[in-house]
Amino acid sequence: MEIRFKCKKCNKENIIEVDDEIDITGNKNLLTELLNSDYFKHKCAYCDEDNLIIYPLLIKDSFHKFYIRLNPENKKLVLIDTQEAYKIRIVKVLNELSEKLRIFNSFLDDEYIESIKYQIKKDLEEHNDNLKIDNIYFYKVEKGFLYFILFDKENYLGSMKYNVAGYFKLEEKFKDKINKLEQVIDEDYIIRNKLF
Ligand SMILES: [Zn+2]
């Protein structure tokens, strides 16, 4: 697909050819580029400036069995015809994309991760006056703990860890309530379905 962007530095229009679908199965380099957003950086042909260009992109991984659709314009999606074993997700921003990639590459399910995020946020806000957490993201799993990073509107607030055993308890509790056809798994989904 051909896209046009105006360079943020010299303001000249660039026309580039990008893939609207990529397969990242077993491709560690591509995964890293997506995780750190390098994939979306395009050099201006006139001044060499790196421009971060976000466009609709479908990412497929047939080992971890997911499709993630980066859908920045929030356009209505045409459903992808696929086998039921695949998770299909829609995300709007790069932070959400990286998070989903980290979750699925850690062999975790985002429904339970979102539930944990909701609980952590609620707990912290209830016990700390004036604290408002705007974003919380799954970061990694290590030595029996899941790690989350927290932000308010502007700042990084810190990280929290959560015992993996708690994750498995949630899985046990909610596995029959998960709607496998749902494509947007976020805080709203958790609240709507009372998965907390
Ligand atoms: Zn330029």
Task: Based on the model shown, name its key terms.
196 residues; alpha+beta; 3-stranded antiparallel β-sheet; binds zinc ion
Sequence-ordered SSE layout with sheet pairings:
Blueprint: E1 2-6, E2 13-17, E3 21-23, H1 28-35, E4 41-43, E5 50-52, E6 57-61, E7 66-70, E8 87-91, H2 94-105, H3 110-127, E9 135-142, E10 145-151, E11 156-163, H4 164-174, H5 187-192
Parallel strand pairs: 3-6, 7-8
Antiparallel strand pairs: 1-2, 4-5, 6-7, 9-10, 10-11
The protein binds zinc ion.
Describe the fold and architecture.
- There is one protein chain.
- This protein is of the alpha+beta class and 196 residues long.
- The protein has 2 domains: 2-105, no CATH class; 110-192, no CATH class.
- Helices cover 28% and strands 29% of the residues.
- It has a 4-stranded mixed β-sheet, covered by helices on one side. Strands 9-10-11 form a 3-stranded antiparallel β-sheet.
- Helix 3 packs across helix 4 (164-174).
- The radius of gyration is 18 Å and the shape is globular.
- Bound molecules: zinc ion.
- The site of zinc ion has 8 residues, from loops.
SSE sequence, one letter per element: EEEHEEEEEHHEEEHH
Ligand inventory reads: zinc ion
What distance lies between the first and last C-alpha atoms, to the nearest angstrom? Answer: 41 Å
Rg of Cα set: 18 Å
Shape: globular
**Structural class by helix and strand composition:** alpha+beta
Strand count, sense and barrel status of the largest sheet are: 4 strands, mixed
- In total, how many beta strands? 11
Strand order of the largest sheet: 3-6-7-8
Q: What count of helical segments does DSSP give?
A: 5
Fraction of residues in helix:
25-40%
Instruction: List unreliable stretches of 5+ residues.
Output: none
Look at the structure and give the mean pLDDT. Answer: 93
Task: State which percent range the strand residues make up.
Answer: 25-35%
Number of domains: 2
